[in-house]
Design brief:
about 475 residues, two-stranded antiparallel sheet, 16 helices, globular
């Protein structure tokens, strides 16, 4: 991956051990060449018309509550329905939770998929299933390997080709980790490192900071002198080690290293990552925190031509503590300096108020710019929450059902797909698996589940075992 932020306290460092682990394709902290390798991989057979050109995949880390946000049950007992009230949206007959008042007035722009379920109520397993778009065959193995099924962005890059001077797949504000655990579904998997995402790596601290979201690595961290230095370092490594020569992909990627350096020094490409070019009013509209600025960055990237943007919503405190805030069990004890009861967590600025602001700003902005029709926006998490509220005023892990929201990219707004029982505990009709959601994303790009991608050894694999929810479109 190519990190676009300096390590806290100093410039990035790479040890010999890291170099050997990563291989020559990640040397000097750069892996953008991997992303530029496969510019022309057209399909060998005709495809149905695509309804989307871009996708912004928003992952609410921890598992958002279906009943408190998207699937309220006002007639359920108090210990089920909770303290939040359903509110009308701008679409007659559709209600959502009162935690999202701004979003409620944009219901005509999105569809609510209420009948999704997860394969597991364990975070690690469910996260991987969601990001891979399929059930992970090795649930006890979280760290990515080159035998993994590729992530969504990698499949789209492989089958639809590159995006010119820009990467095809970008992750903001950083890859999703819990502590040191880096989850599958965030790499090119068996397609190889050429299809890994271009990853920002914002320092893990102060998610609610009002400072402008700066992509420092594209500007001050690699000025012209340092780019030249890195080019020289690459040449020295290639000339003094046999790692490059013995890598199966090393020689083939030489020109893509050059393209990577070209991107880092190209003012036009850098502008896609430069939020300072946005007006103060626009940045305020999205929200002056990591979340709002990430949403704004995602809009800039798809507008510039990036095909897939993964956006991960977790929280880091000023001291670097991490809290996957949508996992609102509640707890006895401090939680990153914030509230420790589940209901208060939902109302905290790091949660629903910021989401309500940022999500509606994104929908409005995409619509105003004529981008929503061709940009699929997906909002999901790894699973749902228990129908019954626990003793800490929160809800626990729940695989029985969850809600996902989709907008744009050919999805017909103002609709609800599927339903759950009276307590939002189990799917009642039209069940949708993680595989089905993955197939639905591919469908928006004109890809069918039985289309194949090929490993570097030439082995074909279906892109999905799911069935697209075609009813969402049109």
């Amino acid at each position: 991956m190519l990190n676009l932020f300096p390590a806290v306290g100093g410039p990035p460092r790479i040890s010999r051990r890291d170099l050997l682990r990563m291989g020559p394709l990640a040397v000097a902290g750069l892996s953008l060449p991997k992303l530029l390798r496969a510019e022309e991989t057209p399909s060998a057979h005709p495809r149905p018309a695509a309804t989307a050109k871009n996708c912004i995949y928003i992952f609410l880390c921890g598992g958002p509550s279906q009943i408190d946000l998207w699937d309220p049950k006002p007639d359920a007992p108090l210990e089920i329905r909770g303290e939040y009230q359903p509110i009308d949206t701008n679409v007659p007959g559709i209600q959502i939770g009162d935690l999202l008042p701004l979003t409620s007035q944009r219901a005509d722009k999105f569809a609510i998929l209420r009948s999704q379920y997860a394969y597991s109520a364990a975070h690690g397993v469910a996260i991987m299933d969601s990001l891979l778009g399929q059930k992970n065959p090795r649930p006890n193995e979280t760290f990515p390997t080159r035998s993994d099924h590729p992530g969504f962005g990698a499949i789209l890059h492989n089958l639809l080709g590159g995006c010119g001077d820009l990467p095809a797949w970008v992750t903001v504000p950083r890859p999703f980790t819990t502590g040191s655990v880096f989850f599958k579904g965030q790499t090119g998997g068996f397609l190889g490192p050429a299809f890994d995402p271009f990853m920002l790596n914002k320092p893990k601290q102060d998610s609610l900071s009002h400072e402008l979201f700066q992509v420092d690595a594209i500007q001050p961290i690699v000025p012209a002198g340092r780019i030249a230095g890195r080019q020289k370092l690459l040449e020295q490594i290639e000339g003094t080690t046999d790692l490059h020569q013995h890598s199966t992909a090393g020689a083939d990627l030489d020109k893509h290293y050059r393209n990577a350096f070209s991107l880092l020094s190209d003012n036009g490409a850098k502008q896609a990552f430069d939020l300072s070019l946005e007006s103060a009013a626009t940045r305020t509209r999205y929200g002056h925190n990591e979340y709002g600025q990430s949403f704004l960055m995602a809009r800039r990237l798809v507008e510039a031509g990036v095909r897939m943007v993964n956006l991960f919503w977790t929280f880091f405190g000023p001291d670097g503590c991490q809290f996957n805030l949508w996992d609102n069990h509640g707890i006895d004890g401090p939680v990153c300096g914030g509230p420790n009861r589940g209901n208060a967590m939902l109302r905290h600025e790091y949660c629903t108020p910021s989401f309500d602001r940022s999500f509606t700003a994104l929908l409005d902005d995409l619509d105003d710019r004529g981008l929503l029709d061709e940009t699929l926006v997906v909002v999901t998490g790894e699973f749902g929450r228990t129908p019954k509220i626990n003793k800490l005023a929160g809800r626990d892990h729940w695989a029985g059902c969850q809600s996902t929201v989709l907008a744009g990219g050919g999805v017909r707004g103002g609709q609800v797909y599927g339903s759950t029982d009276a307590h939002a505990g189990y799917v009642q009709d039209h069940p949708v698996s993680p595989d089905d959601l993955g197939a639905t994303i591919h469908h928006a790009f004109g890809l069918s589940p039985d289309e194949a991608v090929y490993s570097q050894a030439g082995r074909p694999t279906r892109i999905s075992e799911g069935h697209p929810v075609v009813e969402l479109f049109g």
